[in-house]
Amino acid sequence: MPELPEMENYRLLLNQRLIGRIITDVQVEREKSINVPVPVFQRALIGASIREIERRAKHLLFHLSTSNVLVLHLMLGGMMFYGTEEEKPDRTVQVTLSFGAMHLYFIGLRLGYLHYHSLDEVDRLLQKLGPEPLNAEFTQERFAQLMRKQRGTLKSVLVDQGVIAGIGNCYSDEICFEAGLLPSRRSQQLLDNEMDRLYHSMRGVLAEATRNGGYMEMPLFAEDRLTGGHDRQCKVYDREGEPCARCGRPLVRQDVSSKKSFCCLHCQH
Ligand SMILES: [Zn+2]
């Protein structure tokens, strides 16, 4: 499932292409992907322009010129492609937003969705999310306070969107590896220096993955060489049996709090 770096990469690339563009057509192949009847959805969107695209946790918010918002969550298997009809990948598309000859295709929205909301509704829907881990106001002290309040393992606490927003299964393991901490450690029981390492690892891993374009496999547009650049840089996630980048010993899968998890038993404590 795309996490903060993947969605932030999409946000940056789409903002460069879509700000000010008018939606000229809307096609919905799968009604369950949206939250209002198709004709209402089309009437609300066609003729509106994209004011700005914002990210909150793993959501993208497409702010429209009408002051309403399209809220996107890709969930598992969702992705986007921006281009002409000829460039479109051979995949089933659930929703298409057209901007003249260019189209934004939403693909693999099985659990994912593209919902139409007013700004107030969006505020209400997203109010339970925890702070953004890369925001300047999210200091080391605030992080430690939040983590010390949680009873769970690092794995379960890091992926809890109500504690910190935007981290999922892959980056929680990458952050723990970078910090040299086992994902099965209890959040409450970290020593001060371990908590510091975890904070800096979280900021470092998420920022680097974003710079590298995240791990999505499919490019966002035809000449896109950035998206997916981080896929090869992931050090532990889904790499069971491969040598640890630090010590060379084989990485292991150790599910934690019923979540798939990978680590090095030698480098992480
Ligand atoms: Zn190791």
From TrEMBL:
One Pfam family, please name it. Answer: Fapy_DNA_glyco
Q: Which residues form the Formamidopyrimidine-DNA glycosylase catalytic domain?
A: 2-112
Q: Which organism is the protein's source?
A: Paenibacillus vulneris
- From the record, give the transmembrane residue ranges: 60-83, 95-116
Q: Which UniProt keywords apply?
A: DNA damage, DNA repair, DNA-binding, Glycosidase, Hydrolase, Lyase, Membrane, Metal-binding, Multifunctional enzyme, Transmembrane, Transmembrane helix, Zinc, Zinc-finger
Signal peptide range equals none
EC number of this enzyme: 4.2.99.18
Q: This protein's superkingdom?
A: Bacteria
Q: Which family does it belong to?
A: Belongs to the FPG family.
Record bears the keyword Repeat: no
- Protein name listed in UniProt: DNA-(apurinic or apyrimidinic site) lyase
The segment(s) forming the FPG-type domain are 235-269
| Enzyme class per UniProt | lyase
